[in-house]
Amino acid sequence: MSEQEESDPVYAIVRAGGRQEKVSVDDVLNIDKVSQEAGATLTWQPILVVDGDNVISEADKLNGYTVTAEVLGETAGPKINIMKYKNKTGYKKRMGHRQKHTQVRVTGIAAK
Predict the structure, then answer these.
(1) Residue 63 neighbours by CB distance under 10 Å
(2) pTM for the whole thing?
């Protein structure tokens, strides 16, 4: 067996905010803003767990798994410029927006 086959990646699909994210241990990702402070721990219930060749998607088996993450801090998304304009009236309006995110690092995917 090669080394790559022995260390097949373990990853999970979790619902973080309004989206589903594919996460593995030590991944850093931006999720929708949460109220926890930096250093706090988040716990998610996975939707799917893949451990090498073993794929777990049944709800009763997934109840035994948890995904934990550490909150690193708050970040902001890219600047979005919004421009409204109406022809022949002199009406124009300009706005900007930056969505707030929370940056987290996945610390573990474990069975209870």
Answers:
(1) 11
(2) 0.77
